[in-house]
Amino acid sequence: MKKYDAARCREHMLIRNRVGIADFTMGLIEVTGADAEVFLNGLSVNDLRKSGPGRVMYTCMLDENAQYVDDVTIYCFSKEKYWVITAFKDNTILWFEAHRGSMAVKFEDLSDKIALWSIQGPDSRRLLTSCMAKDMTSMKYYHFMENEVSGVPIILSRTGFTGELGYEIFADNTRIDRIVADLVRLGRPYGAQVITTDVGLESLPTEKGLITIRDFRNTNPLEMGMDALIKWDKGDFVGKARLEEIRKSGPARLLMGFVAEDDEIDIELESPVKVGKEVVGKVTTANYGYSVELSIGYCLIDSKYAKPGQKLTIVSNGTEVGATVCERVFYDKARVRVNAKAEEVSFTDGSTRLYLDGGREKVFRGVFGAMPTSMTRDEALDEAAIAKMVDHMAQSGLDGILVGGSSGEYPALSLEERKELMRIAVEAAAGRIKIAACCSTNTTRTTKELCSYAGEVGVDFVLLMTPFDPSVSEADAVAFYKEMAAFSKPGVVIYHYPAYTGVALSADAIAELAHERNIVGIKNVADLTSTVEIINRTQGEAFGVLTGTDEMFLGALASGGDGFMGVCGCVAPGICRKLYDSFQEGDMKTALDMHKRICKIMAVVFGGPFPGTLKTAMEIQGLACGRPRKPCAPTDLVNRRTLQSVLAETGVIGK
């Protein structure tokens, strides 16, 4: 029995008196194009031309017989961009497609990408004021703005389905949990809780006379009492001709409120409504109103009986219940609880989906050279040589460099040396080239120490191998990367090198990590099959997939990859640059030629003692590197001559 449902009553009164937080995610269709306003206006009974950026409009769409297709709220970003919020997005998209014609308009279903949560109640403004980046205290009912909560971009709207002061938040669905957790935490002084019952769709809107599909199915807006919604002078819209006929003759039925005499009977929907012995309509909504302490609902009845005070009999499950017709609003009839001040707003240009994703777009892409670490004869870091090599790379047209990776002998460097290497590289690059630094260690604590320093000195990306000594489970590895993503200021790149670490992440795990806001990509040092699977599983994400296997560079690009990070980018940056650019321009002949040159070079570089061969290849080009730290062996004379020959043959140096 609804009247005595303690959970429903508690949550209903929480929203009426304090603040409740509820998942209200529905269908979200983005409508864009030069004809977006004209298109939507031709399907709506309301006049969208009277809307504007930052305003929300409630309307309904009709078929040619003037019956409801859907009722929707439309968010205006500009005359060429709108969001349509609907509970029936599949049918609505089909309706849009059927009426598109030759108009310049596009539809995109964002329902699975953007979550909608509702914060409702008299303390909602106080709660949100305490955690919003921008002032929102003067927002008017049915207005919206860009804002930020918990460091996450959102769209905040002054809307709701409760009749209370309230707001709704649109956010990237991968980050909404963080927002909700913070709202609950910050809302403790106001008693904020997540709503678990159906009061947001039942008792609360019923007290305010708000309708749903069970009320308007197979009806027209005049029967629903929505006369004020219809803008007769706006021009034509679908269903207008038939609606004008109904207007002249008057609707045969009307949706009215009722109060039942027995509040301990839960009245069933579709229950017949009688006057005397005559069936004059049916119940469309029935609830117990915990604020008004009455059994209330709506009935669609013959117009001649649609008068306040009319006595009715409702037959529910064979039981007759007396009821009295009334107006459909039972609570706050003067709308005192939804008043606020309006304010002009502006919006970020471009994709709102991208804005909600934190402005995320692929930032980890292109060609990166994996640098050796230059050392003096006594195995100290050679700052001058390192700076000279960074300058060489910056002038060679690369998008970025990797310092302190496996090619840079990171296991042989102390933490302080690795920090010093980052500093030297950032200062030498002077913003001309992206700096990625390997911050891998075998503990979370020391990895954080390096990531923290990387953020301080201005490193762009941190490469992190999975801790592997001892090895960890995949679940632990995923948790590690998520923790580091939340901690690190630079973007986190997964350094996936199974042959080196003995730890292989599944495509499922990598796809999961690709959703994380600060995990920007992966350097995959594995076979092409692995790289292609990752590319396919992360499509649509702001997640760059770069192969770290030199010989797979062209194959990865051809499979949809975003670039390359590896040794040949350092040894032969011009060749790698030309391969990438030729592929992007569709010049496959040149790209294939560069690919063959890379394969020749790397067969020699990896055919001798590495990284000694890499250092020798750079010294042949006039860039001092020194020998590898012992016990790694230097390159012998035979290797040096072979390297010089292949570099000349491939055009890296003159013959």
Q: Per DSSP, what share of the residues sits in E-state strands of 2 or more residues?
A: 15-25%
- Poorly predicted ranges: none
Which strands sit side by side, in order, in the main sheet?
18-19-20-21-22-23-24-25
For the record, give the distance between the C-alpha atoms at the N and C termini, rounded to a whole number.
92 Å
Shape: elongated
Structural class: alpha/beta
The number of helical elements comes to 22
Radius of gyration: 33 Å
Describe the main β-sheet briefly. 8 strands, parallel, barrel
User: How many strands appear in the DSSP assignment?
Assistant: 25
For this entry, give a set of tags.
22 helices; alpha/beta; 655 residues; eight-stranded parallel beta barrel
Could you please describe the fold and organization of this structure?
The chain is elongated and about 110 Å long. It is 32% helix and 23% strand. The mean pLDDT is 93. The longest helix has 18 residues, at 588-605. The strands form 4 sheets. The protein has an 8-stranded parallel β-barrel, surrounded by 6 helices. A 6-stranded mixed beta sheet has the order 8-9-10-7-1-11. Strands 12-15-14-13-16-17 form a 6-stranded antiparallel β-barrel. It contains 22 helices and 25 strands. The protein is α/β, with parallel strands linked by helices and 655 residues long. Helix 10 (383-395) packs across helix 11 and helix 13 packs parallel to helix 15.
